[in-house]
Queue: 2 jobs
Job 1
Amino acid sequence: MRVRIKFSKTGSMKYIGHLDVMRYFQKALRRAEFHTSFSGGFSPHMIMSFAAPLGVGLTSDAEYFDLDLEEAESSAVMTEKLNRQMAPGFRVLSVREIPADKSSKGMTLVAAADYDVRLRDGVLPAGADESRVRDALDGFLSQSVIRILKKTKKGEREIDIRPLIYSMAYQNGVFSMTISQGSTDNLRPEQAIGAFTAFLGLPAEKSDLIIRRKELYADLGTDGERHLVPLEDLGTVIE
Amino acid sequence: MKERKTALGEDILLRVEKPERYIGNEINSVMKDPEDVRIRFAFAFPDVYEIGMSHLGIQILYDMFNRRSDVWCERVYSPWPDLDAILREKKIPLFALESQDPVRTFDFLGVTIQYEMCYTNILQILDLSGIPLHAKERTWEDPIVIGGGPCTYNPEPIADFFDLFYIGEGETRYDDLFDLYLRCRDEGWTRERFLREASHLPGIYVPSLYRVTYHADGTIAAFLPAADDVPSKIEKQIVMDFDRVTYPEAPVVPYLKATQDRIVLEVQRGCIRGCRFCQAGMVYRPLREKRVETLKKDAEALLKNTGYEEISLSSLSTSDYTELKELIDFLIDRCSRQGVNISLPSLRIDAFSLDVMSKVQDVKKSSLTFAPEAGTQRMRDVINKGLTEEEILRGAGTAFRGGWKKVKLYFMLGLPFETEEDAKGIARLCQRVADVYFEIPKEERNGKCSITASCSFFVPKPFTPFQWASMDRAEDFLEKAHIAKNEVRAMENQSCIRFTYHEASVSVLEGVLARGDRKLCAAVESAYKNGAMFDAWTERFRQDAWDRAFSENEIDPAFYAHRERSVDELLPWDFIDCGVTKEFLKREWMNAAAASVTPNCREHCSGCGARGFGGGVCYESQN
């Protein structure tokens, strides 16, 4: 059976890198005595895959990995058992069954993500009240093309990120955005905000941003119509 | 509990390499309320986090201390140079991982001293903590700084920097020390009074309470306590009921991949072998085993509490553990259910170990390790390495027929009484191993064999029969390495043999510090001030910083490294009674000169003195 596990990563745990989070969960699953499936060979490993690696320094309310199990219990029991093994800052939010085929993998499906981004004090000019920032944001989003320099292995190239920003709003000091995510057309939240602050002519370093991932989505739309569904909702609760 | 705040801000943590080194919060790390405890103990490993977290000793004592409700023990590691620079620039004091509180506010700073090349990092930790480097400059505003671990069998080169040293195994005397400290605080003693009282505890050495005088030639004339109530000999403390001693069932599990990223099951302590170059084999005598039932129970708990994907057996010579077969059968059965690997270091290669290894590793990919240590039988007899060429070749033959084709051989160069023939013998032994491979009919062979001979340079250590020996100079080492290498090239199957050797300069410095006296404290301090740090890291080692340090303090390193001592000389570490007598070491030094083999403890008692502890292998046949 394949299950999808959703968890949050907060506080100082944002400094734990992706590979270490993976190793952390492998150990947690052993401590929780889950009957996981293993690959063969002399160094067997659990069959697990993460939907979208989270960068160091970001917190998240919606991290996902898919895991193969030999035996399962109810979603509630498995969630509870795993939570007993979590360090402060990690919390398992749900465990749900998903189809065990390739096309249902979170990694394959992920198409968009929600992020909340706050800027550290001093990045926005002192007099910038809510409505003025919102006006500026409207101006930013009304552009038909937003070019940024993207660093690649071969060097730098210019790309247009406007089609990758699905929505972006500003309220109570927080920029909330839905942006494209996945193996193709991946946009990082700091790139989106960076383009906005550059639009305003304000310098902003990556360390000026406080970023929280809020959700990861699959796109179930057809004919070019977007229909974003949280990855969690593609699974079914095990009673 | 409210959310813990990290000592370092996000601006710093996102700027340094591997911020996980500094944030704590690992699984099984112990959190307490500072209001509920009376002693705050910061336990430091003076190297980077990934190395320090691989160390079993801290985990044992961390667990033991934290079982006391009045003690909170936390961990500290050396900040990597990137953070080191930031802490200095921003004047941020070094902090402990659990509470993230500054080390200077603790009652104790314990330092485990595992190798000489970490001495400058001890100073780094003191310095970054804002604790005066010199013990004599400290006040009650500073923690009591206590050192332990293998290097304390000669603590003199770092004596100035410590208030106390603990000589021996930590499991035995810390409770007494803590109780004394509580009394001291209740009664408002001075720091001096506390140190004086502590010096009365067995195993506790207070360097400031001893006076050393020297002869004109630089050797020690006298090493005496400064007062009548201070003991003239410090007795090594060891655990005699090793089966029932405290063991951490839930060690701290790091997020970062530590160098030894696995469960470690300590099956026994001590060694019966008596290799004459090996300090651990002498100072951890007598051999004490754990019962297999205890180990099974520990393994079960450790697997459950850590979730590690690998378990390893630890000891100086695991093949000598009497119930090894039963233990391994249990582990294979238990671990296969959870996809846990078993790693088996330091096994002698024979039919039994090969059978076990073929069950737990991929024969085609893995390599087998032999430690002949020397290239000729005569030399192996000099060092009392109880391994004959016949055994090596038989082991290699069984391994090759079992499908292995990669073999690693570990050697030392620069051993006492070594000749050119012994260096050449390394190449010849490798060729004989190759011969064994090519004796197998071609159709049964599994491609080409690969033999790697890896040489390190011998460093004489205190409390070994070689403590009096002259250490080779770097150029002697290199010459011998070239002789061995050229001989490899002359061998028939040289294309199967790879010859590698270690850096020589670091080994020479290790040799200076290992057998140094108090005069070296000044050089260690100068080296640190000249920028030496992380000396154990080849790419960070700065020979120039040390060269200058020695000349600034008018110290001739050759006096410590290359001088052969007379057996009558008063050695800097003679004030320690490690259980093995000087008479025995002298006898063994003579036996080495005669290339005469001394039997292991199970074959015959050679009267080393460790029998005086009243247990372990010395009394085995009488049980």
Job 2
Amino acid sequence: MNRKTRFHSILGLMAASLCLLGPAADLRASSALNHRQLGNIPIIENGRIKPLDTFARNLLKRFAGRSRIEGYSAIRYLALLLMDPPATRDIRVFLISNPEILNAMGIPRRGKARNRYSFSELKPGLWRLQSLAIQSSRLPPAERGIVETEAIGLYNRIYTCGALMESLAIFRSNPEIHLTLPGGEKIFSDFDLLVNLEKLKELQKQYSRHPSGKNPLPARGISRLIRRIETPPENQPDTFFTIISPSLRGDTRQTAWITPSALFYHHQQPRPQVVRILSLLERIAEGYHRGDQEGYDRAIDRYLQLVFSSSVKIRPSALKTEIFYHRLAPFQRAKILYGLAVLAVMLSLVFRSGVLYRLGFFLVITGFGFHLGGVVLRFLITRKAPVTNLFETFVFTSLSVALLGILLEWKKTRNIGIITGGLSGFVLLMIAGRYATQGDTMTVLVAVLNSNFWLASHVITIVLGYAGIILSGFLGHVYLLQRVFRPSGKRREDRLNRIDQAIYALQAFGLVLTFLGTILGGIWADQSWGRFWGWDPKENGALVILLWSALLFHARKGGWIRKTGMAYGAVIGVIAVSLAWFGVNLLGVGLHSYGFTTGIAHTLFGFIGLELLFILVTAALLTGRRRPDSLPG
Amino acid sequence: MRKKFLFQDIARVLSSPRLTTVGLFLLILLTVWGTLYQVDHGLYAAQQKFFHSWVIWIFGYMPLPGSRLVMTALLVNLFFAIFFRLGLHWRRLGNLLAHIGIVLLLLGSFIIQLSSLTARMVIGEKETTGHAVVPGEWELAVWKQATLTHPVQTLPTDEWKEGDSYAIPDTGLAITVTAYYPNCRSSTGGSPESAAGRSLIPLPSTREKGKNVAGARLTIRGPSGSVPGILLYGLDPDPRRIVIDSRAFYFQLRLRHHLLPFRLELIDFKMIVHPNSVIPKSYQSRVLLKKTGGLQREVLISMNKPLRHAGVTLYQSSYFTSDDGLEHTVLTLVRSPARLLPYLSCLMIFVGISLHFLSQLIPPGKKGSKK
């Protein structure tokens, strides 16, 4: 079954979910519920077991670009999608960045170009969107424009939304499942049918033995219902709400997790076991609809007890830690604290205030504490070295840079350590935040990276090396700015000497660690690809950093450059790191395909342009003064 | 006296860190250029043009030093630096060690380039093979018997040019190359057994050397007769039977075979994905390693866990399923006699530069002042 067919069906299913149950009540008993306990339920997504809380956050980030929308927390929004779809109808959740999509769908634009729209607002244009998305998906990815890519993205988001609405539909009373019995007409859910299958069969027998000899009307209705339960529907749109693990359903030969609907329709297990699992889920839904917090939480607890007792692979502590990690948002806090620390130290320089300086030091240390805490928490959750993807390399590099900055401050380079460490930590965490909005940041590892030892040793070392070079470059900026703007004098020269020593030491640290990381990468490549060195772009990037750093030391030794030249060299070193880190990813060639990224070219070239401008302007200003040590060499 | 001064001057220039600076700068340029060149021309072409070359010709007439030339210059610079500039002193021990390590690394990379072999081994499930093929290198294989198990002779085709003649030892035959194409395609209509109606259409070389398919048209001469117009194409699955002087021979143009002193049987190939995803978690081949003398043992080759045996290393590289549904594993075979040189040299460099920078933390003259 292809995606197109499934999309056709999902539009129907969404309409069913949103319309059959009628309008959402303004005030529901469930609206006051707390969903914290619901967030503890384990689910598998893209190969990783995670709490439903994380799943909900990633989902909302995908839909809306943020983890909270219109006052709804991510888990509350997910609870609504699962248990009360009509209530989500008017929530403006679908982020549309390109208004041309709206034109293509025939939907009027509301307010600013980048805005969020509800399902109700988009509904009139869904068929057009589907047509555009299908046509766009036939194009090779390289030939798709922004509109085509966005159309496919929006199509997939709405598809996911519709599929999730259907996840617990088996527990909903469905007007299609009705039976006229002596007591009157009754409406059931699919799950009611499963639970009462034996009774239905018994009833069928009773009615078929009717003295009239003809098949009476109720018997025909019962047969229809039995057929419904025994003949699963062909289209199963929900492949996302995969919360039933193989061990929970007692099928240890399989590794795939399935959805409640799949368990319901395609179960291979004895019916009592299926009913037992689904009953627990039904009680959760029941607790939700009654708005009974205690009953809701108790039902979730009982389900969790069954889940955790069935498998040792699901670690309750990891799930709880992950929820804690998301609520703590350590990198967000660290970023803010770094920013405030830099501000405090800057103000301390302006007002010559010791209190502000101490406050800055305290803030940067506290920020570092949150930062380190976040990295440790991630390790506890994934049990992998915290450098498995680009997001994590940013987080780890910024941690290393901040640590080096604090060490510099401790070695009495007053203010400079906090300013450079805090500022670079802040900037790198800002960039990391951009990757965090793209979804799960704790992805599983592809086969070639699936080696904790090599990953930890190679990537951590090389990232530490990058951190040394980056901080050295930041200090290079400080050195050059001081040369340009601070009046000359002995104090300034002492200060410049201290900065120069720090640039030299950090450059040396960067060279040694980047070299060690490159060797470890070479050994890893020898183990998995059969060669130590292959001129792959990523390898070449690391080589360029090493060569540049070695060049600086030799040029200084040869007398071609002195302190100012070293500062310029350190600034260029940051450009080399940025190119090695992301520039080579943009090329899209080589064996390091797991690190490829798109959409950063403008930012990268903008950054390089600014750095080159800084070099030119400072060089021009220093040349104008004709000082002996104002130019490289 | 003058000669001595001259030598000292030359030694000073050749050992100068300024020469190193220029060399490193050129190397950076070549590395960046070569990396960008890969995007349009592929890794092999970039390696040949920038990283394995002595001179690079820009626009066909402007020479620029290639990586080999720059590295050789740096090697000379290093030798002179070690002997004339660095000198023996405990403070310079790290520096010296790092530079000797770099010499070893440069020499090691030359040795590896010249002596290593990379080949590919493709094995279907339950099949056994005792050879690997070298991508991009073609050979003419000639058999005397129909069993085709052991080639009588193989001739490499790398240097073949139109009009060349080669004798095939132990067969009494010789060939004359009428046409040879490093990359070509075969026209449809015609079969390997009949050259009539079939021709070879030359193509430009592909970005990856291993993707070229060679083809040749030969004249085969026996002691008392010859057969002209024998067309051989690299993708023909079976050898061609040629009768010459009433004797049958079998000819095939194929990728160069590297025979191994052992055989491998693929028991099972497995690709494991992370549950509920298409993300591969591991690729692994369970093989039976059959040594000469009847000894055999089971081995599991997987990503990051290669098999090292009899001087070669076999890495899990790829896999495919053939049209008949049979799973095949693709292993990369590497034979590199100087494999450990990079390890040793890198260790020396790392220890050397670490010692060098650490020694700079100790202020000079401290020892003396204590006295």
